[in-house]
Automatic annotation (TrEMBL):
<dbReference type="InterPro" id="IPR016181">
    <property type="entry name" value="Acyl_CoA_acyltransferase"/>
</dbReference>
<dbReference type="InterPro" id="IPR000182">
    <property type="entry name" value="GNAT_dom"/>
</dbReference>
<feature type="domain" description="N-acetyltransferase">
    <location>
        <begin position="1"/>
        <end position="141"/>
    </location>
</feature>
<dbReference type="GO" id="GO:0016747">
    <property type="term" value="F:acyltransferase activity, transferring groups other than amino-acyl groups"/>
</dbReference>
<protein>
    <submittedName>
        <fullName>GNAT family N-acetyltransferase</fullName>
    </submittedName>
</protein>
<dbReference type="InterPro" id="IPR050832">
    <property type="entry name" value="Bact_Acetyltransf"/>
</dbReference>
<dbReference type="Pfam" id="PF00583">
    <property type="entry name" value="Acetyltransf_1"/>
</dbReference>
<keyword id="KW-0012">Acyltransferase</keyword>
<keyword id="KW-0808">Transferase</keyword>
Length: 161
């Protein structure tokens, strides 16, 4: 991983549109412009990392500080790389860091997204949910069963944030 730069915003916005499209269409919420604009509007290079594989852009993840810990946001991984353990490796790295600082980690994922399984394997539990979003929480040191290989569709594809 490397720190994000302002110039990365369009690559991340495009990847977001690709990986979120199936879930957003299933929920009747896909809008080609809005899916990209929401990323642009909330993009913070200071809190975002670029995931690379074989030296090329593979995805992104943001870890934004909050009052009681962090928000895990914009976790997107290229579809061709999902299910190979890269998402779990990235998540393990981030959670090791947050466990050291002792704060909670929150995220939201689209309802019905296979990415929810990835987060559950890493100790996230449901805090609340509605028809569109599932809000999840992980306490420091929560049981992490994420050392198993990710299943094909549950690897960082449906993160809502």
């Amino acid at each position: 991983m490397r720190p994000a730069r302002p110039a990365d915003v369009e690559a991340i916005a495009e990847l977001r549109a690709v990986v979120m499209r199936p879930d957003l269409e299933r929920l009747g919420r896909y809008d080609e412009h809005r899916v990209r604009q929401r990323l642009r509007d909330g993009f913070s290079p200071r809190h975002t990392s670029i995931i690379t594989s074989a030296g090329t852009f593979a995805g992104s993840v943001a870890l934004r500080p909050s009052d009681d810990g962090h928000w895990l946001e914009h976790f997107y991984l290229a579809p061709a790389l999902q299910g190979r353990g890269l998402g779990s490796a990235v998540l393990r790295t981030l959670l090791t860091r947050t466990d050291t600082s002792g704060g909670l980690v929150r995220l939201n994922v689209l309802s019905g997204s296979p990415a929810r399984r990835l987060y559950e394997r890493h100790g996230f539990t449901v805090e609340r949910q509605d028809a569109i979003d599932v809000f999840m929480l992980r306490r420091p040191g929560a049981d992490r069963r994420g050392d198993r290989r990710d299943d094909r569709r549950g690897d960082a594809a449906g993160n809502r944030a």
